[in-house]
Design goal:
Elements lengths: L1 H17 L16 E6 L5 H12 L3 E3 L7 E17 L5 E15 L5 E15 L5 H29 L6
Helix pairs in contact: 2-3
């Protein structure tokens, strides 16, 4: 009986390893972006607070100002706002979508653009219930936090992809 349990465990482990599943690793930035200046158009944005720490965890040294030997990550656009998704029969909004748009562009230490300007857009839909107005505000705050975390990870994945060879 013990042998069959052990055999089942070994078979399950081999099947899991054989399917190609693996946990997502921390993003590793390419060597050309290890010293990085972050230029965000809106210094009051959530990205200005969270992105530098994420870049440091990914192996970058975030510099206060641009200079020789320092790559630049520019974020000229960062907007996070709810938009009406649907309206009910009484002309009241029933559903919203929280939309987060960010444009990014990266240049290496020589000034060569390694990541041309591109738009990253994330969104989450939610319903509005006028009887639960306080709950909707809390839901909106939570959606903003989730979108912020997801956006930071999306930016890191785009930067990490620059270091991988093209297939």
């Amino acid at each position: 009986m013990r042998i069959s349990w052990r055999a089942m465990i070994v078979v399950a482990a081999l099947a899991l390893a054989g399917c190609g599943f693996h946990l997502r690793e921390q993003a590793q930035l390419p060597a050309s972006l290890t010293r990085l200046h972050l230029a965000i158009a809106d210094p009051g944005s959530l990205l200005h607070r969270d992105l530098p720490d994420a870049l440091k965890r990914a192996g970058a040294q975030v510099e206060e100002s641009a200079g020789p030997g320092i790559a630049t990550l520019r974020i000229p656009l960062s907007t996070l706002a709810p938009e009406t998704l649907s309206v009910g029969a009484t002309a009241r909004v029933r559903e919203y979508t929280m939309r987060y748009r960010v444009e990014i562009e990266a240049a290496d230490a020589n000034g060569t653009v390694v990541l041309p300007r591109q738009l990253i857009e994330l969104s989450r839909d939610y319903t509005f219930d006028e009887t639960q107005a306080l709950g909707v505000a809390a839901q909106e705050d939570e959606l903003r936090k989730q979108l912020q975390r997801d956006m930071v990870q999306a930016i890191l994945r785009r930067l990490a992809a620059l270091g991988r060879p093209a297939v």
